[in-house]
Design brief:
Elements lengths: L2 E11 L4 E11 L2 E6 L6 H9 L6 E6 L11 E4 L13 H7 L13 H13 L15 H14 L4 E5 L7 H16 L3 E5 L6 H4 L2 E6 L1 E7 H4 L2 H8 L11
Parallel strand pairs: 3-7, 3-8, 5-6, 6-7
Antiparallel strand pairs: 1-2, 1-4, 8-9
Helix pairs in contact: 2-4, 3-4
The chain binds adenosine-5'-diphosphate and magnesium ion.
Length: 244
């Protein structure tokens, strides 16, 4: 199996307490992977360590070569809501256009092509009508869609998302899942922190169960068992398996 992301003995600490301790995860190139675990388990920290935005104490993160036929192994990141300054006066279109910066040479400013690509990305998430709105004026679900559009224009092939469905209504969640499954089916790697245990089997091909150390990592059917969930959450727990 080809892997998009692997960590080996990854240890991250903010202070004296390690947030992640010697974590080995293998995230396959194809499919959608859910990162599951209780509050404070280090899920957001794992995404940040993969992005390289938190210093690691020891261990390493390896990004797979990716599928070269595919173009890029660029990482698109959809942050948890708290990681963004929503009062910063930026329009929806500007935020998405920032995703094109990586394609430009240092002396170039985003121009007509970048604007058109950004509008097309907004159309794909049905947010084109909001192009001139300030990002702080959007609902949470709309904000998530705008960040997904930014990852599109970045031509990302790996999408890291931190609880993209938190604070989102059921209809919007369904729409986002459809977008993400479509991206997955086009050969992209989707990695998502997710907190709703009832939808895990429906959404994810692979699961990383985490609670500061790795509990289990692999295909959803192998990993998402009541025994492993109990180990991750530290309380007896019947998995609520919903039907597709
Ligand atoms: P999760 O996303 O699973 O809820 P986090 O990765 O956000 O967990 O946090 C893991 C642990 O690290 C928690 O105990 C949290 O309080 C701590 N932590 C996270 N970010 C910071 C930070 N910037 N400074 C200090 N401690 C932090
Ligand atoms: Mg978190």
């Amino acid at each position: 199996m080809d892997f998009a992301i692997q960590t080996r003995q990854l240890t991250v600490a903010y202070g004296a307490e390690p947030a992640l301790w010697s974590v080995d995860v293998d995230i396959p190139l194809l499919g959608m992977t859910g990162i599951i675990g209780p509050n404070g388990a280090g899920k957001s920290t794992l995404l940040k360590a993969i992005l390289g935005t938190v210093p690691t104490l020891s261990g390493r993160v390896e990004l797979g070569a990716g599928d070269s036929s595919h173009g890029s192994s660029e990482i698109g990141y959809v942050p948890q809501r708290t990681g963004v300054d929503w009062d910063f006066p930026t329009s929806v279109l500007d935020l998405v256009m920032m995703g094109t910066y990586g394609r430009l040479k240092w002396f170039q400013r985003p121009g007509k092509n970048e604007r058109a690509a950004s509008m097309e990305a907004l159309r794909q998430v049905q947010m084109d009508e909001f192009a001139n709105r300030q990002i702080g004026e959007l609902s949470v679900g709309q904000q998530k869609r705008v960040f997904i559009a930014r990852a599109f224009v970045q031509q990302a092939s790996i999408y890291l998302m931190d609880e993209p469905f938190a604070g989102v209504d059921a209809k919007t969640e369904k729409m986002l899942v459809e977008i993400l499954h479509r991206l997955r089916d086009q050969g992209n790697t989707i990695v998502m922190v997710h907190h709703d245990l009832t939808t895990v089997t429906r959404y994810f091909d692979h699961v990383v169960l985490l609670n500061r150390t790795l509990v289990a990592c692999g295909s959803t059917s192998e990993v998402f068992t009541s025994e492993n969930i109990e180990r991750a959450y530290g309380v007896p727990c019947k998995p609520t398996l919903d039907s597709p």
